[in-house]
């Protein structure tokens, strides 16, 4: 798969994971961030397609 533009603020994602990891000290690998970024891209593409099928040019929460 081709590299996709990173849409995530990696430091914010790492901080969120670290804060919810509890005493185990959960860390975040680079491949997790890349996978999450891919998921975000796919979600955006699906939301655009749904809005367009419904004749809208504005994405709404329910397009997710």
How would you describe the overall organization of this protein?
There is one protein chain. The protein is mainly alpha-helical and 64 residues long. The chain contains 2 helices and no strands. 55% of the residues lie in helices and 0% in strands. The chain is elongated. The two termini are 23 Å apart.
Q: What is the percent of helical residues?
A: 40-55%
**Number of E-state strands:** 0
Strand content: under 5%
Based on helices, strands and strand pairing, what is the structural class? mainly alpha
Distance between the termini: 23 Å
Topology pattern, helix = H, strand = E: HH
The biggest beta sheet reads: none
Low-confidence stretches: none
Average residue-wise pLDDT: 93
Number of helices: 2
| Cα shape | elongated
**For the CA atoms, what is the radius of gyration?**
15 Å
Distinctive features:
55% helix, 64 residues, elongated, 2 helices, mainly alpha
Quick summary:
The protein is an all-alpha fold and 64 residues long.
Topology:
Elements: H1 10-20, H2 30-53
């Amino acid at each position: 798969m081709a590299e996709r533009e990173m849409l995530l603020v990696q430091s914010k994602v790492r901080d969120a994971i670290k804060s919810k990891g509890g005493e185990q000290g959960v860390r975040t690998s680079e491949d997790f961030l890349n996978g999450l970024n891919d998921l975000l891209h796919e979600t955006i593409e699906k939301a655009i397609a749904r809005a367009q099928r419904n004749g809208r040019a504005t994405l709404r929460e329910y397009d997710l």
